[in-house]
Amino acid sequence: ICRSPLAEWYFRYRSRELGVEHRFQVFSCGTGGWHVGEGADPRTVANAAAHGVDLSSHSAQQISLPLLQGAGKIVAMDRRNLRDLESFA
Questions:
Q1: Residues 8-61: pLDDT tens digits?
Q2: Is the torsion defined by CA of 24, 8, 61, 82 positive or negative?
């Protein structure tokens, strides 16, 4: 549950580690709008914190046409998300 905030955090972490963070804009977005403005799921936050990862500043947002149009790469977390993205686009 709530995988994309962790994926966003890890991508930022690794790109910083490799010195290439300045080359990317990274967003974690849901395909539905039912959690917009909320933090990551408490189970995800707790699991991340147990591994030294702070997700407290995460705020859910829904994918939008401007984000899709401006994206160089989009990573779907599973086939259903990919299907939703393809139908949205």
A1: 999 999 999 999 999 999 989 988 888 999 999 999 999 999 999 999 999 999
A2: positive
Would you give the DSSP letter of residue 39?
Answer: -
Determine the residue type at 47: N
Q: What pTM was computed for the model?
A: 0.81
Say how far apart CA 36 and CA 14 lie, in whole Å: 26
User: Tokens 């974690």 label which residue?
Assistant: 28
Number of helical (H) and strand (E) elements in the chain, helices listed first: 4, 0
| Neighbour tally for 45: CB within 10 Å | 19
- H-helix or E-strand containing 71? none
Residue 52's pLDDT is 93
